[in-house]
Structures are given as structure tokens and as C-alpha cells.
Write a structure and sequence with these properties.
Layout (H helix, E strand, L loop, with lengths): L4 H10 L1 E6 L3 H17 L1 H4 L12 H7 L2 H11 L3 E3 L2 E6 L7 E4 L7 E2 L3 E7 L10 E4 L9 E3 L11 E3 L8 E2 L6 E5 L4 E4 L8 E11 L3 E2 L5 E6 L8 E2 L9 H18 L10
The structure holds 2-oxoglutaric acid.
């Protein structure tokens, strides 16, 4: 069905939209359970430092990434030709100090133009108490300067943060399980620790790329989602056809290596890959 004209205009002006209903509550809870069960069965492939691109090895996450309600909304913003650059499981355990500093996603993604969008789907309640995503409306129209902190509790790759940030207009994107937010790649956003007694689980499709987006440097792997095939500058990752098959794990490993090379380009420290 896609977004209404009014929603598209609001996104263009503010850089975000939320909440949008995409899954039934029952389906969202069932997905959260499936994820928990996968975490305990495949701990090597889903631990806290291995949460990128799990959709390439776990079919239920690929199904989420291709869910018509999500893809239709995304199509309204970036056009018919859609590919998926990466996914991230943003999980904050109850009472943990993990947080996300104020940042713009596009800063380290090496992609132009910025015709791409992140869909963040809540599988558990994402509230002010549990550390929901907060955004600074209207900040997507310019590029801010960032510094790397590599802070221990910072979930981001380099602990990158915007140098000078005015948080006075901050909006908290509270979501119930099954709802999603959409945010522009240059929107400044971040999140606080989870002070609730429940896990805060979000799956970020980060990001869906429009057909005119190209890498500015590095190797980039994408999964084809809709419309025409991704341009030849991208390597295409196939959908997984079984949980953690050798082929799926190899596809994910290659995509994660390329992703890390892009995200850590020029960094003084590398964590993980
Ligand atoms: O889940 C969070 O707390 C942060 C999410 C985020 O930074 C993103 O989706 O780009």
C-alpha cells in the first residue's frame, strides 16, 4: 500500500516517520521468540559482537527484510528499484549500559546520493525507559562533523558521535512490537541505555538503497529486494535457504568483511573484523 502523500512530505521535511504498523503483535512476538531461540542455538553466529547481516544466514530475518508492508513504505520514499545494504540487530539487555551516540548513518557508509532509508522494526517494546531511538528532526539536510570515541558501551562501530549537537528538539520514537520507524541516512539520532526489565530488540534494515545509489569507495554487498537488479558496482548476496547453511554463512562473512572495511575506513582502531 505504501505511504500517503502527507507521510512522504513529512518524511522529506523532518527526516523520519513513526510509528508505522507493519507486523501483527502476535507475529512480532513470535519473531522475537524465534530470534531468542536462534541466539541460544547458534551463539557463535548471533552474539553481541556478531549482529550485522544476520538476514544472510537466517531466513526468518530475510523474510522480515522483504516483508511487503516494509518494502511498500520504503518504495514510496526511494523508488521501485530497491536493494538492502545491511541489517543490524540492535539489542539492549535490561539494565545494560549500552547506548548509541548521536550520529548520522550516511557519514561512514560511502554511498551517494543519499537516496536510502533505514527501517527500524521493534520486536519488543522500544520506549523511553528501554532506550528507544531518539531523533533530531530536520537535521538530515546537512552533514555534521563526527569524532570517533570507541567508547566501550557505545554500540556503534567506531563509537562515532556528532561533535556539536543541539538536542533541544529531540523526539523519542517509542514503538510497540510490530511497529517501525523510518529514518533518513543524514538524520541525527541516538539512544540511551535500557533501564527497563525487558530486552529492547530492534531489527534495523540499514539501509534500503534506491536504484540511483552507488558506492563512492570500497566493496559493497547488497541483497536484491525489488525492481531492477542492483547496479554492477555492487556484489549481490543471495537470500539464505536454510538456517546457517555453509553457503549462507560464507555469504554473510564476505558481506561483513566488506562492511567492516567500509565502516572502519581511515579509523585508528578496529573492533572485531
Ligand atoms: O537501536 C538503536 O538504539 C540505534 C539505532 C540506530 O542507530 C540506527 O538504526 O541507525
Amino acid at each position: 500500500m505504501g505511504l500517503t502523500t502527507e507521510q512522504v512530505e513529512r518524511y522529506r521535511a523532518d527526516g523520519w516517520l513513526a510509528p508505522l504498523d507493519v507486523l501483527d503483535l502476535v507475529d512480532a512476538i513470535s519473531l522475537a521468540k524465534q530470534l531468542e531461540s536462534a541466539e541460544s542455538t547458534y551463539p557463535d553466529h548471533l552474539h553481541a559482537s556478531n549482529r550485522n547481516n544476520a538476514h544472510l544466514a537466517f531466513p526468518f530475518l530475510a523474510d522480515l527484510a522483504t516483508h511487503p508492508a516494509i518494502v511498500d513504505a520504503v518504495r514510496s520514499l526511494i523508488g521501485d528499484d530497491i536493494s538492502l545494504w545491511s541489517t543490524v540487530l540492535f539489542i539492549k539487555e535490561p539494565g545494560s549500559s549500552a547506548f548509541v551516540s548521536w550520529h548520522q548513518d550516511a557519514h561512514y557508509m560511502a554511498l551517494e546520493p543519499d537516496n536510502f532509508v533505514t527501517a527500524w522494526v521493534a520486536l519488543t517494546p522500544s520506549t523511553l525507559e528501554s532506550g528507544c531511538v531518539s531523533v533530531l528532526p530536520g537535521t538530515h539536510t546537512s552533514q555534521a562533523r563526527h569524532s570517533d570515541t570507541f567508547g566501550d558501551d557505545n554500540i556503534l562501530t567506531r563509537g562515532q558521535q556528532v561533535d556539536d549537537v543541539d538536542t533541544s528538539g529531540m523526539v523519542h520514537l517509542e514503538l510497540q512490537p510490530g511497529q517501525m520507524s523510518l529514518h533518513h541516512p543524514r538524520l541525527i539520532h541516538g539512544s540511551q541505555p535500557n533501564r527497563s526489565n525487558q530486552r529492547r530488540v530492534g531489527v534495523a534494515m540499514q539501509a534500503y538503497l534506491g536504484g540511483n545509489v552507488r558506492p563512492t569507495s570500497g566493496q559493497h554487498h547488497v541483497m536484491h529486494i525489488a525492481g531492477r537488479k542492483p547496479p554492477s558496482e555492487f556484489s549481490i548476496s543471495p537470500r539464505p535457504f536454510g538456517i546457517c547453511t555453509p553457503a549462507g554463512l560464507a555469504t554473510r562473512a564476505a558481506a561483513n568483511q566488506a562492511l567492516a572495511d567500509v565502516l572502519y575506513d581511515g579509523a585508528e582502531i578496529r573492533r572485531g573484523l
